[in-house]
C-alpha cells in the first residue's frame, strides 16, 4: 500500500482523497446516525475490495459501493497502517503527561502538537473536526467523545499512537 504519511512528506494522493473527501462524505450522508459507528466492524470482503481499488488508483464510489461499517473500518485500517503514528512516541508521552497532570496548560499542548510534521497536523485537524461531528450525534449513534477516545485515543496501542517496528 502507498504510504499515507511519511516523516517529512506529503500524503499520497489516493489516501489523502480517502481521508479528506470520500470517507467523511459517505459517513456524513449515511452514517452519523449509525449505531456503533467505528465500534462495529465492516465486511472483511468489502473492506478488502475497497482497499484494493484505492491501492490500484481506481475510482471508488463509497456512497454506492460501501456501507457505513465497512467505510468506517477502512478509515481505521488506513490509520493503523500509517508508517509513522499520528502521535509519535515522544509526542504521545508528552500528551499523556500533560493530560494526567494537575495542570492542563494549553500552551504545553500547543507546544507538543506544533512538534508534529505538517502532514500529521493536517490529519489531526481533519480527524478532530470529523470525530467531533460524529460525537454530536451520540444520542443516536452512542459514540460519545469517551467512546471515540477508546477507538482513536493515544493509549493502549490505539490507531493514532502505537509502537512501530520500522
TrEMBL record:
Gene3D superfamilies recorded: Rho GTPase activation protein
Domain Rho-GAP span(s) in chain numbering: 1-166
SMART domains: RhoGAP (SM00324)
Keywords, comma-separated and alphabetical: GTPase activation
GO molecular function: GTPase activator activity
A Gene Ontology biological process term: signal transduction
Stated name of the protein: Rho-GAP domain-containing protein
Species for this entry: Zosterops lateralis melanops
Amino acid at each position: 500500500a502507498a504510504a499515507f504519511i511519511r516523516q517529512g512528506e506529503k500524503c499520497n494522493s489516493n489516501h489523502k482523497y480517502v481521508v479528506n473527501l470520500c470517507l467523511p462524505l459517505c459517513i456524513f450522508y449515511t452514517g452519523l446516525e449509525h449505531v456503533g459507528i467505528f465500534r462495529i466492524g465492516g465486511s472483511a470482503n468489502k473492506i478488502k475490495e475497497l482497499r484494493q481499488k484505492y491501492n490500484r488508483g481506481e475510482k471508488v464510489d463509497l456512497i454506492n459501493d460501501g456501507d457505513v461499517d465497512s467505510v468506517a473500518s477502512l478509515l481505521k485500517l488506513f490509520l493503523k497502517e500509517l508508517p509513522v503514528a499520528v502521535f509519535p512516541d515522544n509526542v504521545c508521552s508528552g500528551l499523556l503527561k500533560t493530560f494526567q497532570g494537575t495542570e492542563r496548560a494549553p500552551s504545553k499542548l500547543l507546544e507538543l502538537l506544533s512538534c508534529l510534521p505538517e502532514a500529521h497536523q493536517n490529519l489531526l485537524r481533519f480527524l478532530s473536526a470529523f470525530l467531533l461531528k460524529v460525537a454530536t450525534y451520540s444520542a443516536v449513534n452512542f459514540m460519545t467523545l469517551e467512546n471515540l477516545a477508546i477507538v482513536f485515543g493515544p493509549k493502549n496501542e490505539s490507531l493514532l499512537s502505537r509502537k512501530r517496528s520500522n
